[in-house]
């Protein structure tokens, strides 16, 4: 039969190890006595956008913070289980956390440019890595700003303060700052919740173009956004992974009633 | 004329999805159009193999309807379309039901040939072919109006159905009088009557699609409205 539409998303159970960017195996995490993540296992595919959804406090932001070991900064945080990135368990003590954070970039809800110029913001991470040659820095800044679809808007004022930029531009600048380090994985924790609807659409379109070069994992409260941008979606509730599927399936025919109730606004 | 721009969304993927959806309807329409052309040829030359091909090909059209409906559902769930985008998807979802039914009507006519039930009367056969040609032209006009989102063209096509209806009535009257002359083959006559009715119904289905095209471009539901009132309604809107 003639196939009219092609959608090349695999079933989550069919994602092979080679196609996986992050593999979570039996991950448990506690803040003090509170069991925040409960036996999470999932394979997040490479070069796709995966959305994590669920109510506040369900553990989705905590989970993505595990992917670059940000939770290590909190006292009383302990965890077990494995997170495999690039063939290595990043929960291992032997892992170089700085290198991990270079490879796994993160962008937060509120744009947080450093109090310095646009140019300095983008090359900040590279300078920390010891890159000093001006030409290399120039090339990296231009390339990252182009990838973040910001170059045309700022190329004539690279040395102005980053704070003169609008909220949407600042968020793209922060994305450019992460991209300058050429990460394999980009974590976005509600990257558009402080932005207007139009700017949100621009950032979403940016994500879609970025997935060619890196894997994107986004935490969002906005289910419409999750359905629009993501290839895969995972629904969490009270620290447990309730359902994980390709977004087409999850938003048209979820398997679990809990998921159905949440995405249809029947959760009570 | 207000065309729904499919390629101006910020999301390039959404643009592609809508464009693919629209093209898939045109592909389905093209298939149905070809089915009708093949059926008329099969009727004209009593070509059983060609008619058999039409009957088999109907499965392809059924599958297209399901695929397009699934894609509409997927886009609604994922993209939350509004305004003209929502109208486009609703239009497509409704239009493909009519297009699929056109396919069923064509299949019924093709079965006259495969079952060797073509009317013996040359007058009836040639009248059926004449109506068939008009229906084929109407179908072409309908899909063109959809492709170009052209409400004026849709109204023009809509009007053609009156002529088909009156020719159908004339043929029906002639056929029933012929039936009375040879009442022994009543089942065969009924098959012929059904096939004639199918041709006329395809015209009605084309009219339905034209109404959806007007809904798409104007956002006004003109179903169950006589043509004169429809024209007035559209003039009032401008």
UniProtKB/TrEMBL annotation, chain A:
- Keyword ATP-binding listed? The answer is yes
Q: State the CDD domains in the record.
A: ABC_PstB_phosphate_transporter (cd03260)
Locate the ABC transporter domain: which residues? Answer: 22-263
Q: Which Gene3D superfamilies does this one have?
A: P-loop containing nucleotide triphosphate hydrolases
UniProt keywords, alphabetically: ATP-binding, Cell inner membrane, Cell membrane, Membrane, Nucleotide-binding, Phosphate transport, Translocase, Transport
Q: Which PROSITE patterns match?
A: ABC_TRANSPORTER_1, ABC_TRANSPORTER_2
Family matches, as InterPro entries: AAA+_ATPase, ABC_transporter-like_ATP-bd, ABC_transporter-like_CS, P-loop_NTPase, PstB-like
What are the protein's GO molecular function terms? ATP binding
Q: Which NCBIfam families match?
A: 3a0107s01c2
- Can you say what this protein is called? Phosphate ABC transporter ATP-binding protein
Organism whose genome encodes this protein: Alteromonas gracilis
Lineage of origin: Bacteria, Pseudomonadati, Pseudomonadota, Gammaproteobacteria, Alteromonadales
TrEMBL record, chain B:
Q: Which Pfam families match?
A: PhoU
Cytoplasm recorded as keyword: yes
- Superkingdom as given in the UniProt entry: Bacteria
Localization terms from the record = Cytoplasm
Primary location recorded for the protein, binned into one broad class? cytoplasm
Keywords (A to Z) from UniProt: Cytoplasm, Phosphate transport, Transport
The keyword Cytoplasm is annotated on this UniProt entry: yes
* Biological function: Plays a role in the regulation of phosphate uptake.
The name this protein carries in UniProt is Phosphate-specific transport system accessory protein PhoU
């Amino acid at each position: 039969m003639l196939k009219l539409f092609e959608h090349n998303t695999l079933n989550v159970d069919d994602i092979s190890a080679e196609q996986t960017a992050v593999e979570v195996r039996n991950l448990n995490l506690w803040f003090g006595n509170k069991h925040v993540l409960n036996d999470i296992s999932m394979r997040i595919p490479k070069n796709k956008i995966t959305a994590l959804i669920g109510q506040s406090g369900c553990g989705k932001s905590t989970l993505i913070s595990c992917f670059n070991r940000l939770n290590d900064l909190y006292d009383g945080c302990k965890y077990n289980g494995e997170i495999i990135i690039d063939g290595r368990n990043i929960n291992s003590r032997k892992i170089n956390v700085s290198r991990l954070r270079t490879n796994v970039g993160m962008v937060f809800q509120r744009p947080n440019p450093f109090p310095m110029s646009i140019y300095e913001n983008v090359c900040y991470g590279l300078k920390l890595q010891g890159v000093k040659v001006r030409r290399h820095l120039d090339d990296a800044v231009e390339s990252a700003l182009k990838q973040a679809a910001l170059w045309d808007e700022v190329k004539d004022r690279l040395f102005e303060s980053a704070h003169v930029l609008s909220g949407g531009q600042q968020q793209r600048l922060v994305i450019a700052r992460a991209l300058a380090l050429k990460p394999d994985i980009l974590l976005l924790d509600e990257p558009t919740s402080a932005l207007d609807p139009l700017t949100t659409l621009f950032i979403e379109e940016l994500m879609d173009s970025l997935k060619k070069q890196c894997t994107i994992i986004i935490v969002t409260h906005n289910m419409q956004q999750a359905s629009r941008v993501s290839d895969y979606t995972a629904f969490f509730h009270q620290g447990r992974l309730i359902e994980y599927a390709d977004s087409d399936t999850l938003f048209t025919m979820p398997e679990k009633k809990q998921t159905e109730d949440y995405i249809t606004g029947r959760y009570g | 004329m207000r065309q729904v721009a499919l390629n101006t969304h910020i999301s390039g993927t959404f643009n592609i999805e809508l464009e693919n959806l629209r093209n898939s309807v045109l592909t389905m329409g093209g298939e149905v159009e070809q089915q009708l052309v093949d059926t008329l040829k099969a009727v004209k030359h009593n070509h059983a193999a060609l008619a058999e091909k039409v009957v088999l090909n109907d499965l392809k059209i059924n599958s297209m309807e399901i695929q397009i409906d699934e894609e509409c559902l997927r886009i609604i769930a994922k993209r939350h379309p509004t305004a003209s985008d929502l109208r486009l998807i609703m239009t497509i979802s409704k239009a493909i039901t009519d297009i699929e039914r056109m396919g069923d009507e064509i299949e019924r006519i093709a079965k006259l040939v495969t079952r060797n039930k073509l009317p013996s009367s040359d007058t009836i056969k040639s009248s059926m072919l004449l109506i068939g040609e008009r229906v084929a032209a109407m179908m072409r006009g309908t899909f063109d109006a959809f492709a170009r989102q052209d409400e004026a063209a849709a109204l023009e096509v809509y009007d053609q159905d009156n002529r088909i209806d009156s020719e159908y009535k004339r043929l029906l009257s002639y056929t029933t009088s012929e039936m009375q002359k040879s009442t022994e083959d009543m089942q065969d006559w009924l098959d012929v009557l059904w096939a004639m009715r199918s041709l006329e119904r395809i015209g009605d289905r084309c009219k339905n699609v034209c109404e959806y095209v007007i809904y798409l471009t104007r956002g006004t539901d003109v179903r169950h409205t006589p043509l004169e009132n429809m024209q007035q309604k559209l003039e009032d809107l401008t």
